[in-house]
Here is the input.
Amino acid sequence: MKALFLDRDGVLNVLRPNDYVKNPDELVLMPGVAEALTLCHKHFDYIFVVTNQQGIGKGLMTERDLEDIHAKLTSALPFIDKIYHCPHLKSAHSFLRKPSIGMALQARREHPGLRLKESVMVGDASTDMLFGRRAGMTTVLVGDNSDCATAQPWLVDYRYNDLLAFAESL
Ligand SMILES: [Mg+2]
Here is the structure.
């Protein structure tokens, strides 16, 4: 069994610079993601989202707010099987927070037969690439975060403009 692991902000929805998506109204999907997941669904047994959400740890939003946001996300993108999130502050050094691999291990624990080595991590940041690399996955960088690919090329297996371009390459 293989899974597609997706970062959320900057991959599925538009980044809010220096801010967080704090309520469903602030969640704006990137173009082409619904079509992309329809294609990905044919190639992977599972589609998971793995997202750091320290806005909760900072008190800017609640777990309930995040549930509402993710209800909107999964109703727009029904091929998402599960969303894992880390609410803890970066300073808490949580094993759940990317680039640590707690969320990948949690997914594997909950889905017997899931092979991380055959799975793929798609993200827009070097923390996503390090998470994928440490978990033994293939890594895919999307978006225009060129410093990640140039500064740490060993972390990035493939690069695409966006999730749809990756999905069309499968
Ligand atoms: Mg991101």
About this structure: The mean pLDDT is 95.
